[in-house]
Structures are given as structure tokens and as C-alpha cells.
Design a protein that fits this description.
alpha+beta, OB fold (Dihydrolipoamide Acetyltransferase, E2P), two-stranded antiparallel ribbon, 2 helices, single chain
Length: 132
């Protein structure tokens, strides 16, 4: 892998992260839309860290970046590490029972890892895993 391709790939990951962050409306103003469905104790999607702190067998909706790799299986992560290939940042949780055909994934040029940002998964936290 050439240095130029690594730089271009890093720029792509950063651009995707910035685009995802720009899509949110976190200023607390009423946007006129319907209220969020009560899918977690607070009525909003939890971060991965919050979901890990939730009670066992509690039904939750968790938002994060979905990572799929041969080495790590399916994980939902709070962050993307700037590496090549990209890696799942901590905290993270293993995901069990997800049908990957329902998620549109991006893949690294070498195919070592696939990911999707801004994914919300609903399931139960059991034994440190998110069972969807």
C-alpha cells in the first residue's frame, strides 16, 4: 500500500466522520419533528459506553459505528481509530444476531474491514454483548 493511498484513505475516513457529525442537530431546539420513540430509558439512542453500563437484559437502542472484520467479528464502536485499516475504538461491544444484509457497509481497499457510521441497533445487553 502506497503512502498516497493511505493518506487518501485517511482523508476519506475523516471526511465521512465530519459529514456524519454535521448531519446532527444537537442545539436542543424543537425541529418540529415527531418525538423520538422511547427506545432506551432516556428515550434516545445510547452511546456504546452508556449501553455497557445499562442493566442486563434491558432493551436498548445503541448508536455507533458498526465494524465487521474476520479478527473482531461484528462490533459496535463509539469511535473510529485513524489507522490502516481502520479499527474499532473503545468502548465497543460485540453484536450478536445482526443480519448484515440489512446494513450498507463501506469496505477498506484491501477488504480487511467493513464499517457503517451512525448505525442504530435495538436489542438487549446480555453478558457484555448486544443481542439484536
Amino acid at each position: 500500500m502506497t503512502a498516497v493511498r493511505r493518506v487518501l484513505f485517511s482523508l476519506l475516513v475523516i471526511t465521512l466522520a465530519l459529514a456524519a457529525a454535521a448531519c446532527g442537530n444537537d442545539d436542543g431546539e424543537d425541529t418540529g419533528g415527531a418525538p423520538p420513540e422511547p427506545s432506551s430509558p432516556s428515550g434516545r439512542a445510547l452511546t456504546v459506553g452508556e449501553a455497557l453500563d445499562a442493566g442486563q437484559s434491558e432493551r436498548v437502542t445503541v448508536r455507533g459505528t458498526l465494524f465487521v472484520s474476520d479478527a473482531g467479528g461484528i462490533q459496535l464502536c463509539d469511535a473510529i481509530l485513524e489507522s490502516f485499516p481502520p479499527q474499532c475504538g473503545k468502548p465497543s461491544v460485540q453484536v450478536v444476531g445482526l443480519d448484515l444484509s440489512t446494513v450498507e457497509l463501506e469496505s477498506s481497499p484491501d477488504g480487511a474491514v467493513s464499517w457503517a457510521e451512525g448505525v442504530e441497533l435495538e436489542g438487549r445487553m446480555e453478558d457484555g454483548e448486544l443481542r439484536v
